[in-house]
Amino acid sequence: MFKLDLMDFSNMFSFWTFSLCQAFIVWTPVKGQSEVIGSSQPIIASPGDDVILPCHLSPEMDVQELTVEWSKPDLKPDPLAYVHLYRHRREDLDMKIPAYIRRTEMFVDQLEHGNISLKIMNVTLADEGKYRCLVPKLKSRVQSAVVQLVVEMPLHPRNLQTSDPTDETDVKGVRANRIAVISSVVVFCIVLIAIICAYLFKQRCQNPNHPKYDEVHASSTPLPA
């Protein structure tokens, strides 16, 4: 009876040892096995930007002959449509979401190095959300990664730069020159108008038909003795 219990214990010990070894093998990454790695931080963009959703294989692996799927898991009503689908060494447009047509691209020349990042051009507010990068035929326990895209309206105008004091001096100099030129033109116009008015007044006074001509002429004629 003691021998039977000892044998049962031995068999159970062997069974559990084998199970633990199998579990350890399954959950331990194989040396050299590539995994899909995304960004642990959200990618921030503004409407109109071109943005890159980073994703790559580590260790580096050539995926030119494999299928790469970029999708939006939370997208409704058709979650099976793709943001970008690469297979047979080219982009497949058959199942592409219409809103992303001609707005996405992958770095095809970098696929041999395991770079499967996606570029989205002219980002809109509707593009915000989670994006999943999947290599379905990759012989790895980690075939996909999720990248979060956040689209925010800018608080300040883009390309706002601190002005250079030299630039401000130049602007002030230009303004001063403009004011001086305008002032000179105004003074010249006033003088010209004054000269023209004086000339017309003189001509008018010398005109014999002018009512005041006789008075002026009479006053200038000497009285008879």
UniProtKB/TrEMBL annotation:
Task: Report if keyword Transmembrane helix is assigned.
Answer: yes
Task: Tell me where the signal peptide lies.
Answer: 1-32
Membrane-traversing stretches: 179-201
Molecular function in Gene Ontology: signaling receptor binding
Source domain of life is: Eukaryota
Q: Does the keyword Hydrolase apply?
A: no
Ig-like domain span: 29-143
Q: Which Pfam families match?
A: V-set (PF07686)
Q: What is its main location?
A: membrane
Q: Where in the cell is it found?
A: Membrane
Q: Give the record's keywords alphabetically.
A: Disulfide bond, Glycoprotein, Immunoglobulin domain, Membrane, Signal, Transmembrane, Transmembrane helix
Which InterPro entries does the record cross-reference, listed alphabetically?
Answer: Ig-like_dom, Ig-like_dom_sf, Ig-like_fold, Ig_sub, Ig_V-set, IgSF_BTN/MOG
- GO CC, one annotated term: external side of plasma membrane
Task: Please name the GO terms of the biological process aspect recorded for this protein, alphabetically.
Answer: regulation of cytokine production; regulation of leukocyte cell-cell adhesion; regulation of T cell activation; T cell receptor signaling pathway
For this protein, the record's PANTHER family field holds:
BUTYROPHILIN, ICOS LIGAND
Protein known as: Myelin-oligodendrocyte glycoprotein-like isoform X2
